[in-house]
Amino acid sequence: MNAPASAVEGRTEGRTWVPPTPSASGALGPFLQPARFSDVEVNGGVNMVLTERTSGNRLEMSSPFATDDAAFAWVAEHAASAGRRFDESSPSVRFRLPNGVRVHAVSRVTSLTHIDCRLFLPGLDTLNGLARTGMFGPDIGALLAAVARLTSPFGLIISGGTGTGKTTLLRAWANAHPQRLVLDRVVTVEDEQELFLRRDRFRNLVEFETRESNVDGRGEYPMERYLTENLRRQTPSRVLLGELRPDGGVLPLLLAVGQGIAQGVATTIHAPSAADVVTRLRTYAAFGSRQIPEAAVLDTIASTIDLVVHVENVGGQRMVTAVREIGEHRDGLVTSAALWRWQSRTRRATRTDVDLSDTLAGKLQRAGIDPARFDTRRTARAAR
User: Fold this and answer.
1) What is the pLDDT of residues 90-125, one digit of tens each?
2) Which partner for 85 in 90, 209, 279, 306 could form a disulfide, CB atoms 3.0-4.6 Å apart?
3) Quick one: CA dihedral 139, 144, 145, 151, positive or negative?
4) Quick one: which of 133, 1, 149 has its CA closest to 65?
5) Helix 277-285 and helix 294-304: axis angle, to 10°?
C-alpha cells in the first residue's frame, strides 16, 4: 500500500516538496495548486507526476490513492457531481471541478485508472499579464490588442500543442476588448468550460457547453447542433470557440462570419505550426454532417480567417513563436504570409519584412488604428 498523500515527499533535482493537508477535493485536493503546478497526472494507485508551472520540471510522487479502485471511485464521485457518467459502460470522462480544474479520466480499457488534471492560474487573464511572463513582446502584444478592437468582421486562430497556453492566450485576448463592446453579445462555445469570461465585464455573455447523453443514452447536445441551430438566433457579435476539433464545428463557425451571423470569431486548434493550420481546417471540415466541395471550404477559410498566432513550450516557457496572416484562395491553395517568425538566436518571434495586407490594414484603419505602427521598420524598433 502506498503511503498517504500527506506523508509523501516528492523530489526533483534535489528539492523536496511536502504537500499540504487534504481539502474538499478529496485525496487529490492538496496537489491541485495552480500557482505551483500546471498538470497533475495520476496513474491509479501506483504513482503521480506533477508538472511545475514555472520550470516545466516533473515531480514524481506516490499516488494519493491507496488502490486503483479508490482512484476510480474518486473520478466517479466527482464526475457524477458534474453531471457526467463514469462506470463500466462509460470508461472515459471529462469534467471540471468546482475550482475550475479540468479533469480527464480513463479506466477499464487501460491497465490502470488514469487521471489527468489541467490547472489554470488565476490572474493570467490579460495581455499585459502574459507579456510580463515573457510569452510575447510589446510588438505582438500591440497587434493582439488592436485585433480585439476591430469593428470589421475578422477571424483569429491560436494554434499550438497540448499545454502551450492556447486557451490562456484566447482568454487574455478576449479581455482586451474595449469597454464600449461589453454590451455586444459574446458567445463562448466549449466542450468543457475553460474560458470563464467575467460576467461583470461581459454583460451580454452566452456560455454554451456541450452535453453528453445521460445514463439512458438521451440528452446529448453536441457543438455542431448548437452552432447550426441556435447560434444565429442569438444574434452574436463575437464567437469564441474553445477548441476546433474534427467534430463538425469548423464550417458552422467559419460561416458565422462568412454569412454575417457574427462580427468576429476566435478559436484554438492543435497544430504543429502556424503554416499547418489551413490543412487542419480543411481536414476537420470533412468531419461535419454537411459535405461541402473543397473549393468552397477553402474559399470560406480564406475569407473569414485573418491571423494565426502559434504558441509553443520553449524550454518550459510558453511563448508565441509565429504569427501568420491568411491570404486568398488561389489555384486550390490558401496563401499565407509570415509576419513574425521564431529566431533561435534571440529566443523570440521577430518581425519579418512582410507588410500587412491591404485587407488587414483596412480593417485596422476602420477601427481607428494606424496600420503603420505595425510596419516592419517600426515594429522591429519596438521589439527591442
Assistant:
1) 899 988 898 888 899 999 999 999 999 998 876 678
2) 90
3) positive
4) 1
5) 130
Mean pLDDT of all residues belonging to the chain: 86
* CB hemisphere CA count around 125 (13 angstroms): 13
pLDDT exceeds 70 at position 24: no
Residues 200, 59 within the same domain: no
If phi > 0 it is left, if psi is from -120 to 50 it is alpha, else beta; for residue 14 that is left
Residue 11 is assigned to a structural domain of this protein? no
Is 98 found in the same domain as 194?
A: no
Of residues 106, 158, 99, the one with CA closest to residue 308: 158
Q: How far apart are CA 42 and CA 27, in angstroms?
A: 11
Distance CA 259, CA 236 (A): 12
CATH number at residue 346: 3.40.50.300
Give yes or no for residue 8 having a pLDDT over 70: no
Let me know whether 93 and 145 are in one domain. Answer: no
- The DSSP secondary structure of 187-250, one letter per residue, reads EEEESS------TTT-TTEEEEE-B---TTS---B-HHHIIIIIGGGG--SEEEEEEE-TTT-H
* Domain enclosing residue 296, as ranges: 127-383
Cell readout for 30 is 492538496
CATH number, domain of 110, equals 3.30.450.370
CA-CA distance, 151 to 19, in Å (whole number)? 49
Q: How many CB atoms lie within 10 A of CB 228?
A: 19
In a shared domain, residues 167 and 276: yes
